[in-house]
Design a protein that fits this description.
alpha/beta, 15 helices, 5 strands, elongated
Length: about 300
Protein backbone atom coordinates (compact mmCIF):
# COMPACT_ATOMS: atom_id res chain seq x y z
CA UNK A 1 0.00 0.00 0.00
CA UNK A 2 1.07 3.58 -0.56
CA UNK A 3 3.09 4.65 2.44
CA UNK A 4 1.25 7.98 2.58
CA UNK A 5 -2.15 6.51 3.47
CA UNK A 6 -3.47 5.76 6.94
CA UNK A 7 -3.64 2.00 6.38
CA UNK A 8 0.16 1.95 6.35
CA UNK A 9 0.12 3.36 9.88
CA UNK A 10 -2.18 0.53 10.93
CA UNK A 11 0.22 -2.06 9.53
CA UNK A 12 3.12 -0.39 11.30
CA UNK A 13 1.23 -0.44 14.60
CA UNK A 14 0.40 -4.10 14.06
CA UNK A 15 4.10 -4.89 13.59
CA UNK A 16 5.06 -2.90 16.68
CA UNK A 17 2.50 -4.74 18.82
CA UNK A 18 3.52 -8.16 17.49
CA UNK A 19 5.25 -9.44 20.63
CA UNK A 20 2.27 -8.53 22.78
CA UNK A 21 -0.19 -10.50 20.65
CA UNK A 22 -1.25 -14.03 21.56
CA UNK A 23 -0.04 -16.80 19.22
CA UNK A 24 -3.49 -17.00 17.62
CA UNK A 25 -3.67 -13.22 17.19
CA UNK A 26 -0.23 -13.33 15.60
CA UNK A 27 -1.60 -15.71 12.97
CA UNK A 28 -4.32 -13.18 12.17
CA UNK A 29 -1.82 -10.32 12.19
CA UNK A 30 0.52 -12.19 9.88
CA UNK A 31 -2.27 -12.65 7.36
CA UNK A 32 -3.17 -8.96 7.50
CA UNK A 33 0.45 -7.86 7.14
CA UNK A 34 1.00 -10.14 4.17
CA UNK A 35 -2.38 -9.52 2.51
CA UNK A 36 -3.41 -5.94 3.36
CA UNK A 37 -5.42 -5.57 0.16
CA UNK A 38 -7.83 -8.25 1.36
CA UNK A 39 -8.81 -6.42 4.53
CA UNK A 40 -10.79 -3.64 2.88
CA UNK A 41 -12.97 -6.08 0.91
CA UNK A 42 -13.35 -8.94 3.40
CA UNK A 43 -15.61 -9.65 6.34
CA UNK A 44 -14.24 -10.66 9.71
CA UNK A 45 -15.25 -14.26 9.02
CA UNK A 46 -13.44 -14.27 5.67
CA UNK A 47 -10.25 -12.93 7.22
CA UNK A 48 -10.52 -15.42 10.09
CA UNK A 49 -11.00 -18.32 7.71
CA UNK A 50 -8.06 -17.23 5.54
CA UNK A 51 -5.84 -16.86 8.62
CA UNK A 52 -7.12 -20.15 10.09
CA UNK A 53 -8.30 -18.53 13.32
CA UNK A 54 -11.64 -17.79 14.95
CA UNK A 55 -13.46 -14.51 14.15
CA UNK A 56 -13.14 -13.44 17.80
CA UNK A 57 -9.37 -13.67 17.42
CA UNK A 58 -9.45 -11.17 14.57
CA UNK A 59 -11.57 -8.82 16.68
CA UNK A 60 -9.15 -9.09 19.61
CA UNK A 61 -6.25 -8.37 17.28
CA UNK A 62 -8.02 -5.22 16.04
CA UNK A 63 -8.63 -4.05 19.62
CA UNK A 64 -5.01 -4.73 20.52
CA UNK A 65 -3.92 -2.00 18.08
CA UNK A 66 -6.44 0.57 19.25
CA UNK A 67 -9.67 -0.09 17.34
CA UNK A 68 -13.14 -0.71 18.73
CA UNK A 69 -13.60 -3.79 16.58
CA UNK A 70 -13.02 -5.26 13.13
CA UNK A 71 -15.23 -2.79 11.25
CA UNK A 72 -13.32 0.10 12.76
CA UNK A 73 -10.02 -1.65 11.95
CA UNK A 74 -11.10 -2.30 8.35
CA UNK A 75 -12.11 1.29 7.61
CA UNK A 76 -8.60 2.65 6.83
CA UNK A 77 -8.15 -0.14 4.30
CA UNK A 78 -11.52 0.62 2.71
CA UNK A 79 -10.53 4.28 2.58
CA UNK A 80 -7.31 3.36 0.81
CA UNK A 81 -9.30 1.48 -1.83
CA UNK A 82 -11.71 4.40 -2.31
CA UNK A 83 -8.78 6.80 -2.71
CA UNK A 84 -7.01 4.54 -5.16
CA UNK A 85 -4.05 4.06 -2.81
CA UNK A 86 -4.06 0.28 -2.77
CA UNK A 87 -0.92 0.16 -4.82
CA UNK A 88 1.49 2.72 -6.29
CA UNK A 89 -0.85 4.11 -8.98
CA UNK A 90 1.25 7.24 -9.49
CA UNK A 91 4.84 6.15 -9.38
CA UNK A 92 6.13 9.46 -10.66
CA UNK A 93 4.49 11.35 -7.78
CA UNK A 94 5.80 8.83 -5.27
CA UNK A 95 9.36 9.15 -6.59
CA UNK A 96 9.14 12.92 -6.62
CA UNK A 97 8.11 12.81 -2.98
CA UNK A 98 11.11 10.64 -2.16
CA UNK A 99 13.50 13.00 -3.91
CA UNK A 100 12.41 15.89 -1.64
CA UNK A 101 13.62 14.14 1.52
CA UNK A 102 17.09 15.66 1.55
CA UNK A 103 20.29 14.48 -0.08
CA UNK A 104 19.82 10.80 0.75
CA UNK A 105 16.19 11.01 -0.26
CA UNK A 106 17.31 12.13 -3.71
CA UNK A 107 19.75 9.24 -3.90
CA UNK A 108 17.02 6.85 -2.77
CA UNK A 109 14.67 8.10 -5.48
CA UNK A 110 17.39 7.92 -8.13
CA UNK A 111 18.30 4.37 -7.14
CA UNK A 112 14.69 3.17 -7.03
CA UNK A 113 13.96 4.83 -10.37
CA UNK A 114 16.96 3.10 -11.90
CA UNK A 115 16.11 -0.32 -10.53
CA UNK A 116 12.48 -0.17 -11.65
CA UNK A 117 13.59 1.10 -15.04
CA UNK A 118 16.09 -1.73 -15.38
CA UNK A 119 13.40 -4.32 -14.75
CA UNK A 120 11.01 -2.72 -17.23
CA UNK A 121 13.58 -2.36 -19.98
CA UNK A 122 14.87 -5.90 -19.49
CA UNK A 123 11.50 -7.60 -19.70
CA UNK A 124 10.32 -5.35 -22.52
CA UNK A 125 13.13 -6.91 -24.57
CA UNK A 126 12.55 -10.52 -23.59
CA UNK A 127 11.11 -12.75 -26.29
CA UNK A 128 8.84 -15.20 -24.48
CA UNK A 129 9.25 -17.78 -27.24
CA UNK A 130 13.03 -17.53 -26.85
CA UNK A 131 12.69 -17.91 -23.08
CA UNK A 132 10.59 -21.04 -23.57
CA UNK A 133 13.08 -22.45 -26.07
CA UNK A 134 15.94 -21.88 -23.60
CA UNK A 135 13.93 -23.53 -20.82
CA UNK A 136 13.25 -26.59 -22.98
CA UNK A 137 16.94 -26.76 -23.85
CA UNK A 138 17.76 -26.78 -20.14
CA UNK A 139 15.17 -29.38 -19.22
CA UNK A 140 16.20 -31.78 -21.98
CA UNK A 141 19.97 -31.58 -21.49
CA UNK A 142 22.32 -33.75 -19.45
CA UNK A 143 24.07 -31.04 -17.40
CA UNK A 144 23.54 -27.33 -16.91
CA UNK A 145 26.62 -25.27 -16.06
CA UNK A 146 25.84 -21.80 -14.72
CA UNK A 147 28.85 -19.51 -15.06
CA UNK A 148 29.34 -16.17 -13.37
CA UNK A 149 32.36 -14.53 -11.79
CA UNK A 150 32.60 -11.49 -9.57
CA UNK A 151 29.15 -10.28 -8.59
CA UNK A 152 27.58 -12.69 -11.05
CA UNK A 153 29.13 -15.64 -9.26
CA UNK A 154 26.60 -15.14 -6.48
CA UNK A 155 23.80 -14.76 -9.04
CA UNK A 156 24.79 -17.99 -10.78
CA UNK A 157 25.03 -19.88 -7.50
CA UNK A 158 21.66 -18.59 -6.31
CA UNK A 159 20.06 -19.79 -9.57
CA UNK A 160 21.75 -23.17 -9.23
CA UNK A 161 20.70 -23.52 -5.60
CA UNK A 162 17.05 -22.79 -6.39
CA UNK A 163 17.11 -25.23 -9.30
CA UNK A 164 18.67 -27.94 -7.12
CA UNK A 165 15.55 -28.12 -4.95
CA UNK A 166 13.90 -30.06 -7.77
CA UNK A 167 16.66 -31.03 -10.22
CA UNK A 168 20.11 -32.55 -9.93
CA UNK A 169 21.79 -31.61 -13.21
CA UNK A 170 22.72 -28.02 -12.29
CA UNK A 171 26.31 -27.02 -11.51
CA UNK A 172 27.58 -23.53 -10.62
CA UNK A 173 31.05 -22.87 -12.03
CA UNK A 174 33.85 -22.18 -11.49
CA UNK A 175 33.93 -24.67 -8.65
CA UNK A 176 36.05 -23.89 -5.63
CA UNK A 177 39.71 -24.40 -6.48
CA UNK A 178 38.98 -24.86 -10.17
CA UNK A 179 38.55 -22.81 -13.33
CA UNK A 180 35.51 -22.58 -15.56
CA UNK A 181 37.47 -24.03 -18.48
CA UNK A 182 38.47 -27.06 -16.40
CA UNK A 183 34.90 -27.52 -15.18
CA UNK A 184 33.75 -27.76 -18.80
CA UNK A 185 36.43 -30.27 -19.78
CA UNK A 186 33.99 -33.14 -20.37
CA UNK A 187 30.97 -31.09 -21.48
CA UNK A 188 29.58 -31.72 -24.96
CA UNK A 189 26.51 -31.30 -27.14
CA UNK A 190 24.35 -32.92 -24.44
CA UNK A 191 25.03 -30.04 -22.06
CA UNK A 192 24.04 -26.38 -21.63
CA UNK A 193 26.14 -23.45 -20.42
CA UNK A 194 24.41 -20.38 -18.96
CA UNK A 195 27.01 -17.60 -19.10
CA UNK A 196 26.54 -14.24 -17.38
CA UNK A 197 28.78 -11.17 -17.58
CA UNK A 198 28.33 -7.45 -18.20
CA UNK A 199 30.71 -4.73 -19.35
CA UNK A 200 33.63 -4.83 -18.73
CA UNK A 201 33.36 -8.45 -19.83
CA UNK A 202 35.31 -10.99 -17.78
CA UNK A 203 37.94 -12.81 -19.81
CA UNK A 204 37.45 -16.13 -17.97
CA UNK A 205 33.78 -16.13 -18.97
CA UNK A 206 34.61 -15.41 -22.60
CA UNK A 207 37.33 -18.10 -22.59
CA UNK A 208 34.87 -20.64 -21.19
CA UNK A 209 32.32 -19.75 -23.86
CA UNK A 210 34.95 -20.33 -26.54
CA UNK A 211 35.77 -23.77 -25.14
CA UNK A 212 32.09 -24.63 -24.80
CA UNK A 213 31.40 -23.75 -28.42
CA UNK A 214 34.30 -25.90 -29.60
CA UNK A 215 32.85 -28.83 -27.66
CA UNK A 216 29.32 -28.38 -28.99
CA UNK A 217 27.77 -27.14 -25.75
CA UNK A 218 24.58 -25.14 -26.18
CA UNK A 219 24.99 -21.63 -24.76
CA UNK A 220 22.48 -19.33 -23.08
CA UNK A 221 24.00 -15.86 -22.84
CA UNK A 222 22.97 -13.10 -20.45
CA UNK A 223 24.67 -9.73 -20.84
CA UNK A 224 24.05 -6.00 -20.99
CA UNK A 225 24.22 -5.30 -24.72
CA UNK A 226 23.21 -6.98 -27.98
CA UNK A 227 26.80 -6.30 -29.07
CA UNK A 228 28.26 -8.16 -26.10
CA UNK A 229 30.69 -10.95 -27.08
CA UNK A 230 28.72 -13.20 -24.72
CA UNK A 231 25.56 -12.81 -26.78
CA UNK A 232 27.27 -12.96 -30.15
CA UNK A 233 28.47 -16.45 -29.25
CA UNK A 234 25.22 -17.66 -27.67
CA UNK A 235 22.43 -19.84 -29.03
CA UNK A 236 19.87 -18.10 -26.82
CA UNK A 237 20.43 -14.42 -26.05
CA UNK A 238 19.01 -12.23 -23.29
CA UNK A 239 19.88 -8.58 -22.71
CA UNK A 240 19.64 -7.22 -19.17
CA UNK A 241 19.69 -3.57 -18.16
CA UNK A 242 22.35 -3.12 -15.46
CA UNK A 243 22.54 0.67 -14.99
CA UNK A 244 23.04 2.05 -11.48
CA UNK A 245 23.83 5.50 -10.02
CA UNK A 246 26.80 3.96 -8.21
CA UNK A 247 30.09 2.62 -9.56
CA UNK A 248 28.88 -0.99 -9.49
CA UNK A 249 26.42 -2.50 -11.99
CA UNK A 250 22.98 -3.52 -10.81
CA UNK A 251 22.17 -7.24 -10.51
CA UNK A 252 18.43 -6.80 -10.06
CA UNK A 253 17.49 -7.49 -13.68
CA UNK A 254 19.88 -10.42 -13.93
CA UNK A 255 18.39 -12.06 -10.84
CA UNK A 256 14.85 -11.40 -12.08
CA UNK A 257 15.61 -12.87 -15.50
CA UNK A 258 17.25 -15.98 -14.02
CA UNK A 259 14.27 -16.53 -11.71
CA UNK A 260 11.91 -16.16 -14.66
CA UNK A 261 13.98 -18.60 -16.71
CA UNK A 262 13.82 -21.12 -13.87
CA UNK A 263 10.05 -20.73 -13.62
CA UNK A 264 9.85 -21.53 -17.34
CA UNK A 265 12.03 -24.61 -16.84
CA UNK A 266 9.64 -25.85 -14.17
CA UNK A 267 6.69 -25.07 -16.43
CA UNK A 268 8.04 -27.19 -19.31
CA UNK A 269 9.33 -29.95 -17.01
CA UNK A 270 7.54 -33.17 -16.13
CA UNK A 271 5.11 -33.35 -13.21
CA UNK A 272 7.69 -35.06 -11.03
CA UNK A 273 9.41 -31.69 -10.44
CA UNK A 274 6.64 -30.54 -8.11
CA UNK A 275 6.91 -33.80 -6.15
CA UNK A 276 10.69 -33.40 -5.90
CA UNK A 277 10.44 -29.85 -4.56
CA UNK A 278 7.83 -30.89 -2.01
CA UNK A 279 10.00 -33.84 -0.93
CA UNK A 280 13.05 -31.57 -0.66
CA UNK A 281 11.31 -29.14 1.69
CA UNK A 282 9.56 -31.89 3.62
CA UNK A 283 12.94 -33.45 4.36
CA UNK A 284 14.26 -30.09 5.55
CA UNK A 285 11.37 -29.78 7.96
CA UNK A 286 12.02 -33.30 9.26
CA UNK A 287 15.70 -32.50 9.81
CA UNK A 288 14.85 -29.34 11.73
CA UNK A 289 16.51 -27.04 9.20
CA UNK A 290 13.50 -24.72 9.31
CA UNK A 291 12.50 -23.13 12.61
CA UNK A 292 8.76 -23.24 12.95
CA UNK A 293 6.86 -20.06 13.84
CA UNK A 294 5.71 -20.40 17.47
CA UNK A 295 2.30 -19.14 16.33
Amino acid sequence: MNDTNVSSAVLTRLSEEWDDLTPEAQKAARYVLENPRDVGVSTVREIAEAANVKPNTVVRMARQVGFDGYDDFREPFREAIRNGNVDFPDRARWLQDLSKRGELGALYAETVTGLLGNIEETFARVDVAELKAAAEEIWNCRNVFTLGVGVNNANARNFTYLASTGMTQFHAIPRSGSTAVDDLAWADERDVLIAVTCHPYRSEVLDAIGVAREQGVRIIGISDSPASPVLRAADHRFVVQADAPQFFPSSVSTIALLETLLSFVIAVASDEIVERVEKFHSRRHQLGIYREDPA
